[in-house]
Structure formats: C-alpha cells, structure tokens
Amino acid sequence: MGKLLRVCVIGDAQQPEFRYALSGSNTDAYICQCPALDVFFQMASSPDAIVLLQSYPGEFSTADIEQVIQLNPISTLILVTSSWGEGERRTGFPIKDAIRVGWYDFPCWFKRQKELFNSGNLSQFSLPRTASDAQRAELESQNELPVRNDDVFWIFSDSAVQRETLSRFYGLRGAKVWSGDMTAALPEESPTRIVVFPDYLSDSVLEKICQLKALFANATIYVIVYQPRIEEIESLRRHGADVILSPDYYQYAAL
Q1: The pLDDT of residue 32 is above 70
Q2: Domain total of the chain
C-alpha cells in the first residue's frame, strides 16, 4: 500500500457538472477545495495533483497557470472541462502540460489513477507534468486490467462493430461474453456486468436499462454515451445505470 493521493481542486465545485465529476473523489484521497486561484495562492501546499475546474475556455489565464506551476513545479496538473469548455482544443489555446479530462469522464478516470497511486503502482501522477500524450498512453498500456474469469458480460449495441470491439476486449480479460442488438432476446445465463452502448439516448433506451435493472438487480450496468449532458446522466442513473462512460473509456467496465 502506497501513500494516499493529495489533491487540490480549484474552481466552482458546486456547479452540477463538476459536482458529478467530484462525486466519490474524497474516498481514499486527501482532497482540499479552493473556490478560486487567489485563495489557492495563499495556501502553503504542495499536492500530488492540482485539478482545475474550467467552466469556460480561457477561465484560467496563461499567467495564472504559470504561477500555479511556479509554486507547485512537481504537481500533476489536471484540467476538468465543462460541456462549454470541450471545444477549447479547436477554438482556443489549451493549457499547456495539463491532462485534459471531460467532466463526465473524470469519476472513472480519477478512481482508476487514484487506486494505482495508492497501491504504489505507476499512475498518471507518476509521470512528470511535461509528459507527452504518447508517454501517458504508453504508461496506461503497462497497467493490466484485472482478470474477469468469474464475470458474465452482456453487451447491447445496434452496431456490429461496437459489439465486436467490446466483446473481444472483455473476452481477453477472461470474461464470458454475450452480445446482441438493443432488442435481442436475453440469453439464459444471468450477467454480472451489462454494457449498453446505444447510438443515441432515447426513451426506449432508458426503458431497456430500467427493465434490465429490474431483472438483474445485482448486475452492474454500464452505459456508454457520447458527450452526455448532466440531465442525461441524472436520467440514466434514475433508470438504473450504475456507471456512465464515454467511448474512450469503455475498458473501464472491466475494472
């Protein structure tokens, strides 16, 4: 067991998107929250990671970031963007040397990296702040996901390509996998994990998730969606989804 991760979160943590992003973050980590940078600059701290909650592009100026780095040269810098800030790479000037994570991806991403760090394994916090995306991807590939020999995965998607990709990946983890389209008849063997990857969210998809949860209350239901809104995530959770993932993080259903 390694040391617990020390994180300072800067920004409006009460904004609904960021409140969701930070849900569960206090477990197995030391978290301090600052509403603004000027408060943070008055603190005598040197956390393992600094999380900037960016509500809109340009909220944090270049001078602000330079001061953050100057005061905390070895801290990992993480930029959590709101829905409004997701287009910064195309329309603005992204913050240099920061790990960018969408607000809806942050819960699963942070949980994974926190567990790796606390157990003494290599995590994204192990790399220097200036590490490239390629270096971060290489490190991620070195951390094997757990074997899932005792799991039965059900995959629902109307895309044959998506079904094949997910089935192959979870199957390589040792799981028994069944896949079908959104209206396929259910197999006889009960699942331990259910992955639903719809083309888009609709009332029929929500109804499907609700039915699956009612039938298999002990199975964990993962829903993969593209750039969800906070209202959609709240609706998914009300209908029985346990974890919401973006397509970039489908592998986290095997954690």
Answers
A1: yes
A2: 2
